[in-house]
Design brief:
This protein has two domains: about 130 residues, no CATH class; about 130 residues, Outer Surface Protein A, domain 3, CATH 3.90.930. Helices cover about 55% and strands about 10% of the residues. It has 14 helices and five strands. α4 crosses α6. The radius of gyration is 25 Å and the shape is elongated.
Length: about 280
C-alpha cells in the first residue's frame, strides 16, 4: 500500500507505467496502489476544471489499450472478422487482463492469444461457439512469425547439380528459417484464405490438418499438406537424410513410384523457396 506520493523520478515513472498498463483501468488500479481517491496521483499529474488527474491519465491508458487492439486486429484479421469488432474488443480485453505485455516491442503483444483461447476460463464462450478459434489464432501467429523470420539464400537446382550421385543418400536439407509446420484439429487455412479474399467466412468441419507456412519474396504463403508430404517435411525439419525421406515415401507409394514422387516433392520445395542453401 502506498502511503505517499512518489518521491523520485523513477518511482513516478513506475507508478504511471503500472496505472497506464493496468488492464482493469486507472481507477481500480489506484485502489491497489493504496490511493483510491487519486490524491497522491494528483501530486504528480495536475488536474483542472475539465479533467481530474485520474481522467487525464485515463486518456493515456485508453490510447495504450486501443493501440494494442489495433495491432492485434491487424495480426489476427480472420479472428477479428469472425468475431466482429465488439466481440474482438472483449476478447482482447480479457486476453490482456490475463497476459499483459511483458516485452518492449508491441510486435509480441499477441503471442499468447492462441493459448489463451485454447485454455483460459475467460475464453470458454469463444471455444463453445468457435471451437476452431485457437487453431485459427495459431495459424495467424505463424504467419506473423514467418514474415519476421530471418532471411536465408534459397536452395536452387544448380546447387543440387553440384552434388555427386553417391552423395544423395546422406544429403540433409535445411528448411528456410521462415517455415512453420502447424498441426491443427480444424482446416482453418480455409477461413484465413476467405478472410484474405474478403469473402464470406466458410463453415468448417473438424479435420486433422497440417498447414505449411513460409515466406518467399516478402510474401507469406500457407497451404495444407497431405499425409505423405507432411511426414517428409517433418523428417527434413528433424535433420533426416534424403535417404530416410525416400524410405518414408516408399512406405506410402512403393519403391517403383518413389523416385518420381521424391523428385516431385523436391522440385516443388525448391520452386516454393522452402529449402535454404545450407545443405
Amino acid at each position: 500500500m502506498r502511503e505517499s506520493a512518489p518521491s523520485t523520478l523513477v518511482e513516478t515513472q513506475r507508478l504511471l507505467w503500472r496505472l497506464i498498463t493496468a488492464p482493469e483501468g486507472v481507477r481500480p488500479a489506484l485502489e491497489g496502489e493504496g490511493d483510491p481517491e487519486g490524491l497522491h496521483l494528483a501530486a504528480v499529474i495536475r488536474g483542472d476544471a475539465r479533467l481530474s488527474a485520474v481522467e487525464r491519465l485515463d486518456v493515456y491508458a485508453n490510447a495504450y489499450f486501443f493501440r494494442i487492439l489495433e495491432v492485434l486486429a491487424k495480426d489476427y484479421p480472420a479472428i477479428e472478422a469472425t468475431f466482429g469488432h465488439d466481440r474482438f474488443h472483449d476478447l482482447v480485453t480479457a486476453y490482456l487482463a490475463a497476459h499483459p505485455p511483458t516485452r518492449f516491442s508491441i510486435r509480441y503483444a499477441g503471442e499468447g492469444l492462441a493459448g489463451f483461447i485454447a485454455d483460459h476460463a475467460d475464453a470458454a464462450a469463444v471455444r463453445d461457439e468457435f471451437p476452431w478459434a485457437s487453431d485459427l489464432a495459431a495459424l495467424e501467429w505463424a504467419i506473423i512469425d514467418a514474415f519476421d523470420a530471418e532471411d536465408a539464400p534459397h536452395l536452387t537446382r544448380d546447387d543440387l547439380a553440384r552434388i555427386p550421385p553417391e552423395g544423395w543418400g546422406d544429403l540433409r536439407f535445411t528448411l528456410d528459417p521462415s517455415v512453420r509446420l502447424l498441426r491443427a484439429l480444424w482446416p482453418v487455412n480455409r477461413i484465413r484464405e476467405a478472410s484474405d479474399r474478403g469473402a464470406p467466412l466458410p463453415s468448417v468441419e473438424r479435420e486433422d490438418t497440417v498447414i505449411l507456412v513460409w515466406r518467399k519474396d516478402e510474401r507469406v504463403f500457407h497451404r495444407p499438406l497431405d499425409r505423405l508430404e507432411a511426414a517428409c517435411v517433418g523428417l527434413v525439419s528433424e535433420g533426416a537424410t534424403f535417404g530416410s525421406v525416400c524410405e518414408r515415401i516408399a512406405l506410402e507409394v512403393g519403391e517403383s513410384e518413389t523416385p518420381a514422387r521424391a523428385l516431385a516433392l523436391l522440385t516443388a520445395w525448391i520452386e516454393s523457396g522452402l529449402l535454404s542453401s545450407g545443405v
